[in-house]
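Is this the right way to post structure tokens for a design question? Let me know if I should format differently. Anyway, here goes:
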């Protein structure tokens, strides 16, 4: 699943390529989670100019000239493709066709990637937001007995972090993913926030370096811990893998709070 850094890069590249284009038509192929009818979506967006593309949590938001927003959640396997004339990509979910005969298609072989017209605002802060700072996380963690990785993955608490980057962040912060959230001391919560920002922002740079024009897929080769090709961390400890619930990469260098 694309996570915050991937989507951040996708949004920048899509904004560069599509900003200012006008919607000619919208084609919905398969969108069981679409919150409006195809006709309502078409009637709302047709003739509007795309004013910006940006990331919000784990979604891409396409904002149009009248203020309407189309949210796209790629889920596990959703991919975006640009095309000219006719879309030839398999498993289309939704197509945005522009007046210059170019288009953007969201595909998903599982058929669950989700478009939403004018999505409701979320209560949880974005992982890179100032609202997700040490005071916020300290207050949340103090009430949670579940392990810290589970909390980081909960999009109702903090938005944008997925399985792979949770492992990278926790290793960088020196916190075991199996630590009880309410046992993590204040100084480690501050380290955690610093690692969230540092790891995610660095990942964005690495993705751009590897593929400057990327709008689909995942680049993970630069990862230090959540990386099947690596056997040891940069500090030399063996990388361990726990597969009980989800594949978790960690080392014994990380402190366990329980």
């Amino acid at each position: 699943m694309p996570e915050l850094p991937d989507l951040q890069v996708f949004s920048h590249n899509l904004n560069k390529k599509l900003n200012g284009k006008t919607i000619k038509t919208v084609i919905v192929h398969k969108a069981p989670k679409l919150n409006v009818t195809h006709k309502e979506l078409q009637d709302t967006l047709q003739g509007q100019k795309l004013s910006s593309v940006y990331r919000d949590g784990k979604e891409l938001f396409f904002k149009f000239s009248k203020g309407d927003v189309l949210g796209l959640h790629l889920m596990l396997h959703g991919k975006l493709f640009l095309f000219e004339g006719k879309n030839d990509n398999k498993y289309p979910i939704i197509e945005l066709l522009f007046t210059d005969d170019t288009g953007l298609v969201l595909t998903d072989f599982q058929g669950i990637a989700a478009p939403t017209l004018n999505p409701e605002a979320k209560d949880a802060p974005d992982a890179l937001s100032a609202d997700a700072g040490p005071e916020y996380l300290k207050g949340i963690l103090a009430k949670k007995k579940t392990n810290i990785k589970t909390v980081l993955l909960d999009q109702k608490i903090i938005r944008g972090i997925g399985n792979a980057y949770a492992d990278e962040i926790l290793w960088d912060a020196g916190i075991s993913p199996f630590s009880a959230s309410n046992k993590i001391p204040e100084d480690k919560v501050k380290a955690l926030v610093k690692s969230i920002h540092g790891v995610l922002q660095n990942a964005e740079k690495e993705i751009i370096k590897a593929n400057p024009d990327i709008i689909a897929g995942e680049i993970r080769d630069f990862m230090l811990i959540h990386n099947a090709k690596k056997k040891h961390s940069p500090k030399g400890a063996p990388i361990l893998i726990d597969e009980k619930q989800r594949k978790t990469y960690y080392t014994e260098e990380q402190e366990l709070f329980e």
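Format looks fine. Someone answered above. Worth noting: The mean pLDDT is 97. The beta strands are 23-28, 50-56, 59-64, 69-73, 79-84, 92-98, 102-107, 114-117, 240-242, 248-250.
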